[in-house]
TrEMBL record:
<dbReference type="InterPro" id="IPR002142">
    <property type="entry name" value="Peptidase_S49"/>
</dbReference>
<keyword id="KW-0645">Protease</keyword>
<dbReference type="InterPro" id="IPR047272">
    <property type="entry name" value="S49_SppA_C"/>
</dbReference>
<feature type="domain" description="Peptidase S49">
    <location>
        <begin position="78"/>
        <end position="212"/>
    </location>
</feature>
<dbReference type="Pfam" id="PF01343">
    <property type="entry name" value="Peptidase_S49"/>
</dbReference>
<keyword id="KW-0378">Hydrolase</keyword>
<protein>
    <submittedName>
        <fullName>Serine protease SohB</fullName>
    </submittedName>
</protein>
<dbReference type="InterPro" id="IPR029045">
    <property type="entry name" value="ClpP/crotonase-like_dom_sf"/>
</dbReference>
<dbReference type="GO" id="GO:0008236">
    <property type="term" value="F:serine-type peptidase activity"/>
</dbReference>
<comment type="similarity">
    <text>Belongs to the peptidase S49 family.</text>
</comment>
<dbReference type="GO" id="GO:0006508">
    <property type="term" value="P:proteolysis"/>
</dbReference>
<keyword id="KW-0720">Serine protease</keyword>
């Protein structure tokens, strides 16, 4: 006698990681708090044969990238489930950190991967306000409290302090990639300059394992009859009707972030 539930084809849990990475609170970006329940369900529901991450992210918060990546590894090891990351347009900076949490990284020929670096950007308006006769008044308790105030001239001390912040964050990023990619990384290339590469180049450098798309690759690895269970955040009622002002701001910010890597989201 055939018992139906004992003869089910294997399932693949698919989780989309799309958008800039930042703290929870607004818009459609990625954060550990927002992804935690989705990741729990993806790894534990119906005992999937594998988890597939569809990654399309230009990066963002290094802390949130680390938290999400660590959660993925924790769940993968606790449940003994392999993880595959499939890069779509971009897996750059924190987006590549997320991809590196997988056991295998697959990309499209035209995907953009890498940007293993840390950036701090801003503007300086001190000369502008001087020309218009505007006086900047700042009072602090603690001489370093107004670090990199855009309305005051940048000082060597400001730059040195910023370097002390960026350096350890970059080292943590490099350690993440070395620990996850190991001997697969090319030894004759400097991969930690913040540079980016297309899919085929990334494979040659060991930043990705091959050129492949999610559905055909999972069927190749786990069988033609494999089932796909997709997990994603539920849109709020306002968002469903396009009435969320936060989404408009978020969309503009994310378009700008994706545009840095030549990846438009029309």
């Amino acid at each position: 006698m055939k018992i139906p539930f004992l003869n089910r084809p294997p399932s693949i849990a698919v989780l989309r990681l799309q958008g800039a990475i930042g703290a929870v609170g607004r818009g459609t970006g990625l954060s550990d708090a927002a992804l935690a329940p989705l990741l729990e369900r993806a790894f534990r529901r119906r005992r999937p044969a594998a988890v597939a991450l569809a990654v399309n992210s230009p990066g963002g918060s290094p802390v949130q990238s680390s938290l999400i990546g660590a959660r993925i590894r924790r769940l993968a090891e606790e449940n003994d489930i392999p993880v595959h990351a499939f890069v779509e347009d971009v897996a750059a900076s924190g987006g590549y950190w997320l991809a590196s949490s997988a056991d295998f990284i697959w990309a499209d020929e035209s995907s953009v991967l890498g940007s293993i670096g840390v950036i701090s950007a801003g503007f300086g308006f001190n000369e502008l306000i001087q020309r218009h006769g505007i006086e900047r008044r700042v009072h602090t308790a603690g001489r370093s409290k107004s670090l990199l105030d855009p309305f005051r001239p940048e000082t060597p001390e400001d730059v040195a302090r910023l370097d002390r912040l960026l350096g350890p964050i970059h080292e943590a990023f490099k350690q993440q990639i070395r620990s996850r990619r190991g001997d697969r990384l090319a030894r004759d290339a400097d991969l930690f300059t913040g540079d980016i590469w297309t899919g085929r180049e990334a494979v040659k450098l060991g930043l990705a394992d091959g050129i492949a798309h999610l559905v055909p690759k999972m069927r190749e690895l786990y069988g033609e009859k494999v089932r796909f269970l997709t997990y994603g955040p539920r849109a709020s009622l306002l968002r469903r009707f396009g009435l969320s002002a936060d989404d408009v701001i978020d969309s503009l910010e994310q378009r700008s972030a994706f545009a840095r890597f030549g990846a438009g989201r029309g």
